[in-house]
Write a structure and sequence with these properties.
seven-stranded antiparallel beta sheet, 3 domains, Membrane-bound Lytic Murein Transglycosylase D, Chain A, 6 helices, binds zinc ion
Amino acid sequence: MRKAGIFVLLQALLFLCADGLLARDLSRIDTVRTHLVIPRPALQPLKSLVTSDSDPIDTLSTANEYIKVVLFADNTWQYIKLPGYQAEKDVFEKNWDTVASNPYKLEQKDLPYSWSIWLVDSLDQYHCPFQGDIHPRGKFGPRRGRRHQGVDIPLKTGDPIYATFTGKVRMSKYLGGYGNVVVIRHENGIETFHGHLSKRMVEVGDWVNAGDVIGLGGSTGRSTGPHLHFETRYQGFAFDPQWLIDFKTGDLRHRLFVLKKKYFSQYSNYEQDFEDEWKNEEEDKKEDAERAAMRWHTIKSGDTLGRIAINNGTTVSALCKLNGITPKTVLKIGRRIRVR
Ligand SMILES: [Zn+2]
């Protein structure tokens, strides 16, 4: 990716040199984001935008008219994607609906087992929607007989709420229990829901970049105090946002996310499942160790339990217990019994 990027950059430089001038479209630079994400391996967690403090000094064209390269005074650079590029993607056309909270109308049985989703790359960045502690009673899962489809993070009314990735606003309205809600569909296909806002700052159809303020936190709708209700959905199905984001640190957990269908179950909770997977691993290890320690003896003519016990440094009752037999069990020649 980086190599390709440098190639594009060189191409753009060659083009500009041949043209005999270095285009300085500063009016455009002022409107673009000046953040830089340092490339890291796909599965490493990612901080909210790693920003360059440096001033943008130039924009360069690339082979794609919608993609520009911005150069900064500290010799770093970043790709910038113009909205026209996004508009070409059919993720914003298929199942596009500004009224229904779930426009996909799919059944879980028709879905594949899992998806691999690139959350960020050199063009798509990330920003934590709101960094904070999830309320102990605000986790994903069943709550008071209903399904809690997201996480609740307490805040102060007026705190800014950010777009998590690049995307387009699919809904922005007052909706029952959600109060003021903003729903954004992202290029990676994931939708984010932001509920109980005191103010919505984007409208249906707006393009947003990761880190844009889309509204202010509040307590509208069914809410007992100021908090952000945050949901992540894919193909219309909600899954625990903690699979993506560590809200305490604000980190994105990975660049490439493997979303499993089982995460759509209301009982699939990140903390719970993570713990279960860890427990299973411990138990598997224990079983493997036990299996490795097992010793067996094949019955030969003339064998008795007493002699087998003596030869293996154990007792008849221990042998009986291990093999589910009694001292009176007839030992058939060729049968394998466990001695340890
Ligand atoms: Zn909630």
